[in-house]
Amino acid sequence: MHIQSSSRMDTYVLSRLLVLVLCIYSLKTAVHGAGECGRNPPDREAIKLAPCAMAAQDKSAKVSATCCVRIRQMGKNPKCLCAVMLSSTARNSGAKPEISMTIPKRCNIADRPIGYKCGAYSLP
């Protein structure tokens, strides 16, 4: 009888540990999914804007159609677009935030978040 009781106790402890591990994993996933760009950090999302590199460095550079498509997609989430434009990946590529902020306007995106505060900058 003592063996059965011990076996039940082991099963109970293991089931509680499994629940605890699943809870911790869920919290970790929820926290990582709560960023400006969902589960992807802004530095990873910035890679998608590689076609905008020249336009983000030079206000007179032509903005490519591919860049505008990607800006339009990312601009549906202004927090993400802002975080990407200010990311270390963007800065390391030579992008200038004050110029990057002009790209949605230069792409003639009518429903862009005009006036959206992005750090020290506002989207025109």
From TrEMBL:
UniProt-listed Pfam families: LTP_2
Keywords carried by this UniProt record: Signal
UniProt-listed InterPro entries: Bifun_inhib/LTP/seed_sf (IPR036312), Bifunc_inhib/LTP/seed_store (IPR016140), DIR1-like (IPR039265)
Single annotated GO MF: fatty acid binding
Domain Bifunctional inhibitor/plant lipid transfer protein/seed storage helical: 45-114
Domain of life, per lineage: Eukaryota
Gene Ontology biological process: systemic acquired resistance
Signal peptide: 1-33
PANTHER family tied to this protein: BIFUNCTIONAL INHIBITOR_PLANT LIPID TRANSFER PROTEIN_SEED STORAGE HELICAL DOMAIN-CONTAINING PROTEIN, LIPID BINDING PROTEIN-RELATED
Name listed for the protein in its UniProt record: Bifunctional inhibitor/plant lipid transfer protein/seed storage helical domain-containing protein
Organism: Brassica campestris (Field mustard)
